[in-house]
From TrEMBL:
It is an enzyme of class 2 (transferase). Pfam families: TsaD. One of its GO terms (molecular function) is tRNA N(6)-L-threonylcarbamoyladenine synthase activity. Its EC number is 2.3.1.234. Keywords: Acyltransferase, Transferase. Residues 31-160 form the Gcp-like domain. This is tRNA (Adenosine(37)-N6)-threonylcarbamoyltransferase complex dimerization subunit type 1 TsaB. It comes from the Bacteria. PANTHER family: TRNA N6-ADENOSINE THREONYLCARBAMOYLTRANSFERASE, TRNA THREONYLCARBAMOYLADENOSINE BIOSYNTHESIS PROTEIN TSAB. It comes from Salinicoccus bachuensis.
């Protein structure tokens, strides 16, 4: 099984080619660049490194969000386009689950992205070997609410990119960035998608969408 994996949900970019769940080649960046300008370039570099051609890929796994509206759309659009063009299966994984899987840690952890105004996008997971359990559903919520919930679990930690600025008071966290090559260790978090029906999972509508809905409903 040859998999192409893509995560452009936030400022970091992570792509990989795995064989039978093990990474053959990956590119992970945390520099601030436009993913739309670099993603296909990096994917082509993976093919050059591995010697594979696009027709060798059996499935595509993409991070479906939450994250940057633009970033999530770029990854999902490229994944859907390639899956359709190559007539191969499309799978998705939560961007939050990617962070947790990337750490190589066990225990309870809450990966977070800043959601502005003291809110975050987050979930709480418990990892144990190959077991991956969601103990608090992914959502958009107040940072203080998440931290209070995390206190219920001994040794629970917050995962975040050290370069991300939070609008809430987040003083203690463990630095973590996505390495999407790691997600195939946890098949339970990977979801099969209809290539025509799949949509990003933002967890919160954008301000533009909110304003449009208010105008159309008034």
């Amino acid at each position: 099984m040859i998999s192409l994996l893509i995560d452009t949900s936030n400022r970091p970019l992570s792509i990989a080619i795995n064989k039978d769940g093990y990474c053959l080649a990956e590119i992970n960046t945390t520099v601030k660049k436009t993913h739309s300008a670099t993603l296909m370039v990096y994917i082509n570099e993976l093919f050059e490194m591995t010697g594979y051609k696009r027709g060798d890929i059996d499935r595509i796994i993409v991070a479906r969000g939450p994250g940057s509206y633009t970033g999530v759309r770029i990854g999902v659009t490229v994944a859907k386009t390639l899956a359709h063009a190559l007539s191969i299966d499309l799978y998705s994984v939560s961007s939050l689950a990617v962070i947790a899987a990337s750490t190589g840690r066990e225990g309870v952890m809450a990966p977070m992205f800043d959601g502005r105004r003291g809110n975050v996008y987050t979930a709480v997971y418990r990892l144990d070997g190959k077991s991956f359990e969601e103990v608090m559903d992914a959502g958009y919520m107040a940072l203080d609410t998440v931290l209070e919930h995390l206190e219920k679990y001994e040794g629970g930690i917050v995962l975040s990119d050290a370069q991300e600025k939070f609008s809430g008071n987040l003083d203690i966290f463990t630095h973590a960035i996505p390495r999407i090559s790691a997600v195939e260790k946890f098949e339970s978090i990977i979801r099969h998608e209809d290539v025509h029906q799949m949509v990003p999972e933002y967890l919160k509508i954008s301000e533009a969408e909110k304003n449009w809905m208010e105008r159309t409903q008034s």
